Amino acid sequence: MANNKPFKVKNGLNAKRYLGKIGSGSFSSPTQTIDLSTGNYFQYSFSAATTLAFSNPPETGKALLFNLELSNSNDTTTWPSSIKWEYGLTPTVYSDKQIFTFLTVDGGTTYYGKKAGETFS
Question: Among the four residues 29, 53, 96, 97, which has the most C-beta atoms within 10 Å?
């Protein structure tokens, strides 16, 4: 049974349970913007060098945790400069399926990111 009523999180902010929406597609131009207002799990594949951007994060004081599944052809991925990567190391995107996890709590000024997994078949 789905419960979409607000619940209280540890820091005192109210939030609604967000039932996962999945966004997907193929990147065909060199710059791609992922609209964060449309879901919290995004699946994309691309075959050329791609620069990624995020748009429409929630306002400051509201948390958004989202996942990005990428499959590509071993081309270059340029990430937004607002991402603070785990251990300060920007991960390499390989040609197999990989999942990245991101968190923002400041309206998208900063995203905390890490590679959650790779080499999925």
Answer: 97
- Residue 29's Cβ-count burial label (10 Å; 0-12, 13-18, 19+) is exposed
Tokens of 27: 């990147």
> Which candidate, 77, 80, 34, places its Cα nearest to that of 57?
34
Q: What is the pLDDT along the chain (121 residues), one digit of tens a residue?
A: 455 554 444 444 444 444 456 665 555 567 889 999 888 888 888 777 888 999 999 999 999 999 998 887 566 889 999 999 999 999 888 778 899 999 999 999 999 999 998 877 6
> Token pair 């060098």 is at which residue?
49
Are the CB atoms for 68 and 34 separated by under 8 Å? yes
Distance, in Å, from the CA atom of 110 to the CA atom of 80, rounded to the nearest integer, reads 10
What one-character DSSP code corresponds to residue 92?
P
Residue-range domain boundaries for the chain: 33-120
User: Cα separation of 71 and 43, whole Å?
Assistant: 8
pTM of the model: 0.77
